[in-house]
Structure formats: structure tokens, C-alpha cells
Amino acid sequence: MENLNLILPEIFISLSIMFLLILGVFKNDSSKITFNLSLFAILITTIITINETFSVTRETLFNESVVIDSMSSLMKIITLIGGFLVLVISSTYLKTFKIYNIEYPVLILSSILGMMVMISSNDLIVFYMGLELQSLALYVLATYNRDQLKSSEAGLKYFVLSALSSGLLLYGCSLVYGFSGSTNFDIISNQLNSEEYVLTFGIVFILVGLAFKISAVPFHMWAPDVYEGSPTTVTLFFTIVPKIAALTVFIRFLYVPFLNLIDQWQMIIVFLSIASMVFGAVAAIGQTNIKRLVAYSSIGHIGYTLAGLATASNEGIQSSIIYISIYVVMNLALFSCLLMLRRKDQYYEDIEDLSGLSKNHPLLSLCLLLILFSLAGIPPLAGFFAKFYVFKAVLEQSMYFLAIVGLLSTVVAAFYYLRIIKIMYFDKEKDKYDTDHSLWLKFSLTVSTILILLYFIFPSQLIEVVSRINII
Amino acid sequence: MNFPILSSLILLPTVGALFLFFTKDKEGNNSTAKYVALFTTIVNFLISIYLWISFDQSTSNFQFVEDRTWIDGFINYKVGVDGISILFIILTTFITPLCIISVNNSVKNRLRDFLIAILIMESFMIGVFCALDLVVFYLFFEAGLIPMFLIIGIWGGPKRVYSAFKFFLYTLLGSVLMLVAIISIYWITGTTDVVQLYELGIDAKYQNLLWLAFFSSFAVKTPMWPVHTWLPDAHVEAPTAGSVLLAAILLKMAGYGFIRFSLGLFPVASEVFTPLIYTLSVIAIIFTSFIALMQEDMKKLIAYSSVAHMGFVTLGIFTLQQQGIEGSIIQMISHGLVSAALFLCVGVVYDRMHSRMINSYGGIVTIIPKYSILFMLFTLAALGLPGTSGFVGEFLILMGAFKDNFLVAVIASLGVILGAAYMLWLYKRVVFGKLVNEDLKKMFDLNRSEYLILSCLAVPTLFFGFYPDPLINTIEVSVTDLINMHNTNIASK
């Protein structure tokens, strides 16, 4: 009998989803209670995950198709915490647009479930199942504000392009299956060797599909439109949570089934990384909408995480995971600020709307200042350390070109972050924004800003947690 | 040494800034905030003086060393001072309170935020001079960009946005390559601890590239020709206190970095690249002196003179002679005092007439005589008149240069003449001559705080001009050992 305790988090969260759906059918006006219950469910799931799986080094279940190891449990915890915080700061925004319905938490929960399955997958089929579950939930979330044209457009675009990439992914999977005769990652890993050239097609198709999911250049085209059109809270969800899951799968694919084919994929990853870093930095300069700008900046940040992956070393993987964790905190803080730009039931999301913010809202703008400098990677803020670890790992492998291009693109990226700071601090002020924010929004902004600011005092803790992850 | 005196030097201004952060910001007259800031910085100055008194001048070992694990098995938070760095720390703690006194007249709005920025800046600057670990050094070196960007951008003049961006991006661009070099050093030697690196040495085959990476950062910060163009813009647009910090201390970080890292870590490469430094320094001295002659804006003129003076500094450092390096350090200290004073002098007349143009002044000697006298003193110090600290530095540098390379020394000496030309001409046009404008008659002479600041700067300028021994004694052993270490390294290669 399998040890089902290890997938208790997944079981619990699926039961919660079903329960919430039934509750929605039988109870009128149940949105508030669904929200609270779903938050509660995520919290319990987090606790279960920590309790049951955090100390596990590596266990497999169901014919080795599901793997529980230190990476999967850590990434699940980050996913859950990210999902929790997104959900908890969404309510005011959703109420403003009168879309405070039960579907929202249920969809978030099901996409989280899909991501957890992805993170734990050790088999092509299980992986694809998780991927589709999370994607379908995300398509609906993108169009969630269905009365707005932009939101529907975003959802449709996302659906068409994402379906295409899923198709490519599936085709790649079938090619790999054809060569190895198995869908299990470990068996594939033993079967594959670099002799077979057609296999490269399989790898490339899979990598393209995955690169699409994490919006790495040149498969990023959907991101700006989708990020801009979706409701802001959903954009926040897009920028952090699915990236964690996709990154984990990326790591899993590269370092388990394709480990022997390192020569074939390393160049691809280096290219994706450099292209994302450079393009993310350059394309963000001309943006006027903050959400679009965040889309490009997140493309750039994905470039840095990929730089860590390209090293083919444990340090590299660990640095990528550190990077994505710090990135999650920074983006959460950034969007908390964005959700505070509200005046009489209207949200503002143009960079110009930040003009002179520091005069009317000194604290908010100070937080935003720290967040932006951190995103730009200026010491002593957390964002610097994220980049520092990545480049440390990159330079260990003597990949000087990658490191220098990456660091030079941080200078370009610094320009557009500085531009926002300039507008906030050097320009003329506009009308005041409302200050009656929900307690949770203030809480998430305060905590994440403090984490960003004071990370340099205790940098070892995060490293310690991450250093348990040894894939290779 | 149990009490962490260096860490308290670094932290105290930040604590003061935190304290200010929680006080209420009153528009208009906000004297409480100013007194808090002033008190913090003066206490910090006294601590640094205590540091100097208890400093042991007979050894070149690092003193007051604190070594704590910061990132396990990778970076230690390590700070300490030797004869070279201690002077820069005292310069920092000395100039900052003067900046804070000077804000009376120049900063009108958001005074509290300005003081917070200055205090945080002080923390970072002291950190740069104490750091004994490359990563810690880089952290402080880069972190200083944030407050300075805000100081120029929020409180600066009309073209402040352009200048702030230029300052930030130029410096960042220079520094990222240094980060690559620092991490590479870690992978080559297994440590980023400066003291250990001094002992271990770095393989000669890596040194050239690493040296260039550090050079790209320090050259921008110094600034050396041809990457000096951010400096005049930043100086002109920054508020007076910002210009003072920039000229007096920020530029010295690079000179300090050259001595501590470029010479100390890469002896072979330093020999290789000496001709490059000589060429750039001589161009800086001659070329920017000519540019300074042509300026019509007083602040810009002084900014270009800073470039020329820093040209002397880099020249002196890479003579690799005892006199040259000692001269460079004294020149940096002296330039810190004198350029700060000159920017404050410009600030004084700017606050009254709201013009920095030379041609809007003239004949003010009879209207504001006290100011004219002090301005005269600093002008003479800037051109290196014997009896002022400027002379000691320049003289030692040229002595060192003559020992090493005759031609370079001769050309650099011409720079001294040019320096005298532009400074005296500036003084003549501003202070003497006919009264060009009736409005100038309404100017009042130095008020109490201005008088205090300028006298505070005048005393050490004159004192070290006549009696430079306290400075030389402090640095002598450290410099001698640095050169000895350099020579043994060269000989063993």
C-alpha cells in the first residue's frame, strides 16, 4: 500500500474544491464564505505540506509517477503561500468590479492543484494532466472580468496561444516516448543518450512548450497582452504562481530525463536566458502601462532564473530557486502597491498616475521605491542578492559571456525602474488616492517590503532551506 | 578590541535616520530634525576622532577588525581600518556635519527627507572605507547610489532628472563589471576576504582582466577622462550639500579603491597598465584644465577642476613610489576639504543671487569682504599654494612622478600652472573688477552658520599645509608596507 500521506495536500485541496462547488450550488450569496473557506483550505494544505513532506528527501508513489522530494515540497509551499496572498488581497478589487463570486477562489484553488501535480510529477502523463488543469483554470481567470473587452481578449489570446504550446509540448512528449518506450522520467533518463538526433526534436518541442509557459523570449508574445488585459489580481497571480510551477517542471525535465543530453539543451537555455534578459530590459523602456511593464520586467527576471538553470549544477538550480522566491516577494509587494492606486472605485494602472506620489503618500512611495530598486538589483536590497547568487553560480561554470550580458542588461533595466521612481519623486503631484485599504493589503505590502529591505541581515536562512535541493 | 567601534560608526547615522523617519515632518522651519541629524553626525565625528587617537600608527595591520559570519561559508562581514582608510573615515565624518549645517540656506522643501538621505549616505560611505571583504565593499559602494540619486533628483536644479539618471547609470554600468570580477576572484581563490587575498595573491594570468574590470568601476567613479562627463552635470544640478558630498567623499571612494584593490590585489597588472593610467591622468590634468578655463558656470568650473585634481591623484597612485602614493592620499584629503569649501562658497553667493554664472558677479570684494577672504584662501589652496594642504599633495605626487617618469611629470607640472590660471581668473572675475550689477549691493556677508562651516574647513586646510605630519605619520607605515608587498610580488613573478 502506498503511503498516501505524502499526497495528502493534493487530496485535501481537491476535496475542498468539490466541497466549495457544492456549497456554491446550495447556498445563496455564498461568495464571502467561499473566500474565507478557500483561504482556510490553502492554509491547512500548507500546514499539511510542511508536516508531511518537508522532511522527506525523496519518495515516489504510484509506480514512480509522482515524486515527493525537497524541491517539490519547497515549491509547493511557495505556490501555496503565493496563492494565499493573492487570494487574500483580491477581495476589494473584485468587489469594485462586482465580480466577487464563488468561482474566483475555486478557480484559483484548482489551478493551484494543477500546479502541485505538475511540481510533483515524475511522469509525462501526470505532468501533462497537471499542466492542463492549471491552464484551463488560468484561461477562465484571465477572462474573469468578462464585461470588459480587454479581459475577454486576454483570455482568448491566452487560450489560443497556450493551447498551441500545449500541443507542441504533447508532440515533444510523444517523440520522447517513442524513443525511450516509457513515460516515466527516471526510465527515460536511463534510455536516452545523445546518439539519436531525432530525439533533439522532442527535446526542443518540450522546451518550447515550457518556455511558453514561463514566457521566455522568443515565446513571450502573449504575456504583455494577457497581463494588461486580465484583472489586476489575476495578473498578480499570473506573474508569480504559475511561474514557480513551470520553473520546477523545467528543472525536473532538464535534470532528470534529459540529464544525459546536456550538450543539446544547454545552448538552448543559454539562448533563452540571454534573449529574455536583453529583450525584457529593452522592451520595457517604452511602456506606459504598469501591468505591461511588469510583463516585460518579468520576462527579464525569468531570463535570470534561466541563467541559473543553464549552469547544469546544483548551485545553479539552487540559485534559480532563490531567485524565483525573492522575485515572488518583490512582485507581491509591487502589486500590493498597484492595488492601492484607487480613487473612488477606479483603479489606476498607468505609470503617469504615479506622478508625484511621494508628496501625497510618502510611505507608499517609499515602499515602491525600495521595491523598484530591489527589482533593479541594487544592493543592499533582496533583489541584488537574488542576482548575486545566480551570477555566482554562472561564473562558477566560467560562463562569462552569460554573466556579462546579464549584468549589462540589469543596467538597461535599471533605467526603466528609475523612470518610475523619477515620476514618483521628481514630478508634480496629482490628486490623492483613497487610503482605506483592506488590512490584508497593508499587511502584505508591509511584510514583503520589510523582507526586501532587511533580507541582507539574514541571508543564510533562505540558502539553508534551498541547499537541501540536490537534483543532480 | 571588544567594542565594535567601526560597526557603530557605520550604524549610528542609520539609527539617526530611523529616528528622523519617525519624527513628524513639518513644512518650513524644521529645526528639530536638523538638530537630531547634526547631533548624530557630530557624535559620529567624535567617535572617529577617538578612533584616530587610539589608532596604532606603528603597524600596517588592520585594526579594530570585526569578523562575523554573514553568509555561511561564503562571505564574512569583515571591517577594519589601516592608516590609509582611517583618514577617509575621518574626512567623511568631518564633512557630513558641515553639509547638514549648510542645508539651512539651500534646501527649502522636505528637509527631513533630505537629512535622512544624507545620514544614510554617510553610513554607506563609512562602510566603503572600512570594508575588508570585496562583497561587503561592493555592497556599500553600490548602495550609495540610491541616496545620491534621490539627493540630485529631488532637490536638484532644473536639469536634475537628466543628471541624476546619468550619474546613476554611468556608475552602475562601471560597477557591474566589478561584480563579475569579484565573483570570479571568489572562484579563483576561494575567498573574498581582502586580508587573505593579500596573502594568497592572485594568479598573474587572471590579473589583467580582473584589473580592467575593477578599473571600469573606479575610472567612472574617480572620474577619469573620458568617462568624466557625468560629474559636471551631477555637480551643477545637485544642491550644495549634495555637491559637497559628491566632491569631497564620493570621488575618493575610487581613489581609495585604486590603492586598496587595484594595487594591493593585482600588482602585476598594475605595472602593466601604468602607462594607460599615466596617459589618461595627464589628459585629464591638461584637457580638463583647458575646459575649466572656458566655463561660465562657477560650479561647472570647480567640477572640471575636480577632474583635473583627481587626475593628479591617479597619477600619484600609479607612480608606485612612497611619495607618490602618500601625495595622492593627502591630495584626496585636501581636495575633500577644498572642493567642499569651494562648492559651499558658490552656494553662498548662489543663495543670495540665484545665479551661478561668473559674469553675473564682479566687484563684490567691497560688499562682502569676509566671504572674499575665505574664498581667496580656498582658491589658493585649490591651486596648490605652499602653506595650504593642496601644495603638500601636489608636491609629493610630482616628486613621485619625477622619480618614475620624467616626461609625465613635466606635463603634469604644466597642469599646475593651468590650475592656477583658471582658479585665479575665476576669483578675479567674481570678486574683483567693476561692480557689474546694482543688485549685488544688496548682498549680505556670511551669516553665522556659513562663517562657521567655512572656518571649520579653513583651519585644517591651513594646518595641514604647514604641518602635514599627522597625516603622513598615519599613512606612512601602511603605504611603505603596501609598496614592499607590491615589490615582493613583482619580484616573485
Structure characterization notes:
The complex is a heterodimer of chains A (472) and B (493). The longest helix of chain A is centred in the middle third of the chain and has 32 residues, at 149-180. With 472 residues, chain A is mostly helical. Chain A has a domain at 262-472. In chain A, the strands form 2 sheets. In chain A, strands 1-2 form a two-stranded antiparallel ribbon. Chain A has helices at 8-26, 31-53, 70-96, 103-120, 124-142, 149-180, 185-191, 198-213, 222-229, 232-255, 262-283, 290-309, 314-339, 357-360, 362-376, 382-396, 400-426, 439-454, 460-466; strands at 58-61, 66-69, 342-343, 346-347. The model of chain A has no long low-confidence stretch (mean pLDDT 89). The two termini of chain A are 29 Å apart. Helix content of chain A is 73%, strand content 3%. In chain A, helix 11 (262-283) runs parallel beside helix 17 (400-426) and helix 13 runs antiparallel to helix 15 (362-376). In chain A, a hairpin with a 4-residue loop joins strand 1 and strand 2 (66-69). Chain A is built from 19 helices and 4 strands. Chain B has 493 residues and is mainly alpha-helical. Chain B has a domain at 266-493. Chain B is built from 19 helices and 2 strands. Chain B has a two-stranded antiparallel ribbon with strand order 1-2. In chain B, strand 1 and strand 2 form a beta hairpin. In chain B, helix 3 (83-106) runs antiparallel to helix 11 (240-265), helix 14 (322-353) crosses helix 19 (469-492) and helix 16 (389-404) packs antiparallel against helix 17. The longest helix of chain B has 32 residues, at 322-353. Chain B is globular, with a radius of gyration of 21 Å. Chain B starts with a helix and ends with a helix. The mean pLDDT of chain B is 87. Classes of the chains: A mainly alpha (472), B mainly alpha (493). The interface between A and B is medium-sized, with 31 and 33 residues.
The strand line-up of the biggest sheet of chain A is 1-2
Which structural class matches the secondary elements of chain B?
mainly alpha
Order of helices and strands of chain B: HHEEHHHHHHHHHHHHHHHHH
The quaternary structure here is heterodimer
Share in β-strands of chain A? under 5%
Radius of gyration of chain B: 21 Å
Largest interface: A-B, 31 and 33 residues
Count of individual beta strands of chain B: 2
Number of helices of chain A: 19
Q: Sketch the major β-sheet of chain B.
A: 2 strands, antiparallel
Please give the share of residues in helix of chain B: over 70%
Distance between the termini of chain A: 29 Å
Largest beta sheet of chain B: what is the strand line-up? 1-2
Q: What is the H/E order of chain A?
A: HHEEHHHHHHHHHHHEEHHHHHH
Query: What is the tally of helical segments of chain B?
Result: 19
**Biggest sheet features of chain A:** 2 strands, antiparallel
How far apart the termini of chain B lie comes to 37 Å
* Rough outline of chain B: globular
